[in-house]
Design a protein that fits this description.
Layout: E1 3-8, H1 17-24, E2 29-34, H2 50-61, H3 67-73, E3 77-83, H4 85-92, H5 99-106, E4 111-115, H6 119-123, H7 125-135, E5 140-142, E6 146-149, E7 155-159, H8 163-176, E8 184-189, E9 194-195, E10 201-202, H9 209-218, E11 224-229, E12 242-244, H10 248-259, E13 264-267, E14 274-276, E15 297-299, H11 303-309, E16 315-322, H12 327-336, E17 341-346, E18 354-361, E19 366-373, H13 374-388
Parallel strand pairs: 1-2, 1-3, 3-4, 4-5, 8-11, 8-13, 11-12, 13-16, 16-17
Antiparallel strand pairs: 6-7, 9-10, 14-15, 17-18, 18-19
Length: about 400
């Protein structure tokens, strides 16, 4: 049975948390973890919360193994309901001064945030900045509050999800990626370089955002994730199996080391198609190298094609960046490189936070997703992989 940590914070929507608990325990084992202010809203009669153990036993009897560590290693999911303005700010700022915030500081599995507050509080610039920090974490999902009647009597954004809606989301969460739980996944992303000399190189405008969103979503959904990444426009989220490779050759060398142990291989990287034929191992100097007036190119190592030649059991996913949705070209690439699935996206998605994609499978099934933010696109891609394997 899956184990859920239900973190209740001190907002008016906490009055619904007991109902949520009673629904969840029909299907899951549930630990209730409350902030100090949550006790002002929740009738705890009949409930045993971890705070009682933490407050009384941890401090009075001197536990050597903290309860937040136990919860972090022996649970499958955190639900923060409601996520208040104060608690969101605390998590975003790295403050861990009670059991709920300590737990989130330690655990690596997913946390589902269900914010609830006054409309002006939700639209506050500080809250929106903190929201961005939390949604950029590798193991969080943020559910925008509803538009409706608030505790103040006003109408606006900030209304909590109803408990039955949260249960549906949790059920979907555990069922949606069930085929990935025992799978090892190899992912590449970011851009590579073609060196001209010791300090100059040719590259492309890919930011690496799409691959990083895939990484964020996959970390908690599979048995093992190995990420081989090139240059990106941001600091890549760290985990145990991060490997930097900034040329096609290095990318292939690192990927092939892990390839045989992988069940799924996702090639999202923007790798160079051409490279300089004879790069210099020193810096070109205009006074010395006056006769250099042209640069010759050759085709770069096609990492995806080379991997496809060694494919045995692996479910292989490729990406195609194109000027338009040319399905014939995508289908040819899928067949030529022995792919199980190809994701087609357009050049106008470069450096953008949103994307429109088409997914084509080797069975010639086509799926289209329009104008989604890249975190949602990543989930759609992962869902489709989960459905097919």
């Amino acid at each position: 049975m899956k184990i859920i940590n239900l973190i209740i914070t001190g907002g008016i929507a906490a009055t619904k948390a007991k109902e949520l608990y009673n629904l969840l325990i029909k299907k899951y084992e549930v630990n209730i973890i409350m902030t100090k202010n949550a006790y002002k809203f929740v009738d705890t009669e009949g409930l045993i919360t971890y705070n009682e153990i933490f407050d009384k036993e941890f401090y009075e009897n001197g536990h050597h193994y903290a309860d937040h560590i136990k919860l972090a290693f022996n649970s499958d999911l955190n639900i923060i309901y409601p996520a208040t303005y104060n608690f969101i700010g605390k998590v975003a700022s790295g403050i861990s001064d009670d059991l709920p915030s300590l737990l989130l500081a330690v655990c690596t599995f997913d946390s589902l945030f269900f914010p609830s507050m006054n409309t002006n509080m939700y639209n506050n610039e500080i809250l929106q900045k903190n929201k961005k920090i939390i949604t950029n974490l590798s193991n969080t999902q943020w559910f925008e509050p509803k538009f409706g009647k608030l505790a103040s009597g006003d109408y606006g954004i900030g209304r909590a999800y109803e408990p039955i809606e949260v249960v549906s989301i949790v059920d979907n969460y555990f069922n949606k990626f069930s085929n990935l739980i025992d799978k090892n996944i190899l992912l590449n992303f970011g851009r590579t370089r073609s060196y001209i000399d010791k300090v100059r190189y040719i590259t492309n405008a890919s930011s690496g955002k799409m691959g990083n969103e895939l990484k964020k979503s996959l970390i908690s959904k599979c048995n093992k994730l190995v990420s081989i990444f090139g240059d990106t426009d941001f600091n890549v989220i760290q985990n145990a199996n991060n490997i930097y490779a900034n040329t096609n050759v290095k990318m292939y060398e690192e990927m092939i080391k892990h390839f045989n142990d992988m069940d799924i291989v996702i090639c999202c990287g923007a790798l160079t198609d051409f490279e300089v034929t004879n790069p210099l191992d020193r810096k070109i100097e205009k006074r010395v190298d006056k006769n250099i007036n042209e640069i010759k190119f050759k085709e770069s190592l096609d990492v995806l094609k080379e991997l496809s030649r060694k494919k045995t059991k692996q479910f292989l996913v490729g990406f195609s960046l194109a000027n338009d949705f040319n399905l014939d070209k995508a289908r040819n690439k899928l067949l030529e490189k022995n792919l199980d699935m190809i994701v087609i996206n357009l050049t106008n998605a470069l450096n953008s936070d949103s994307n429109t994609i088409k997914i084509l499978t080797k069975d010639n099934n086509l799926y289209e997703y329009e104008n989604l933010n890249k975190s949602d696109v990543a989930l759609k891609i992962i869902e489709k992989i989960n459905d097919i394997i």
